[in-house]
Design goal:
- This protein is mainly α.
- It is about 60% helix and about 5% strand.
- The chain contains 6 helices and 2 strands; from the N terminus they run ααββαααα.
- A hairpin with a 4-residue loop joins β1 and β2.
């Protein structure tokens, strides 16, 4: 999963910045990213771009998204979310290289409770994406700092 998040961050960074900030995508940059990296998700139409799901993904970014979705679904075991044990296993098995305290049950439980916005005791898919967003943002900041230090 770490490599999937890394692909997403790298692709974002590759398209961001040509119109100014490397931390945001302009409308044109976003369109270029979608058109080139997610061609199976995008259908050109006037005046807007429509986004569709396509089950067979081929491009790196599409493959990364598929990995994130598949990891959640296999960890949730076809349920409507990740219970405490499922969430703990997902964090330990798939995010251990990206996060600290993944062997600390209390830290994982606290993280799960923080993500559980609707307080149903489970981490649903949208809540899981919040975690992925945090990790991708942290990875992006680290890469930006490394690039700045190398310059």
């Amino acid at each position: 999963m770490e490599s999937a998040i890394d692909v997403l961050v790298a692709q974002f960074k590759a398209y961001a910045g040509s119109d100014g900030s490397s931390d945001t995508l302009s409308r044109d940059e976003f369109h270029r990213l979608l058109s080139s990296q997610l061609p199976n998700f995008v259908k050109e139409s006037s005046p807007a771009v429509e986004v569709y799901f396509w089950p067979f993904l081929a491009v790196d970014m599409e493959s990364a998204i598929k990995t994130l979705v598949t990891t959640f679904l296999s960890s949730a075991k076809s349920k409507d979310g990740l219970g405490q044990n499922d969430f703990k296993k997902l964090v330990q098995n798939h995010l251990g290289n990206m996060m600290q305290d993944t062997e600390n049950s209390a830290a994982i439980k606290e993280m799960q409770q923080g993500l559980d916005e609707n307080k149903d005791g489970k981490v649903g898919f949208q809540e899981y994406l919040t975690l992925i967003g945090y990790l991708a943002n942290a990875m992006s900041q680290k890469k930006s700092e490394q690039n700045a230090a190398a310059s």
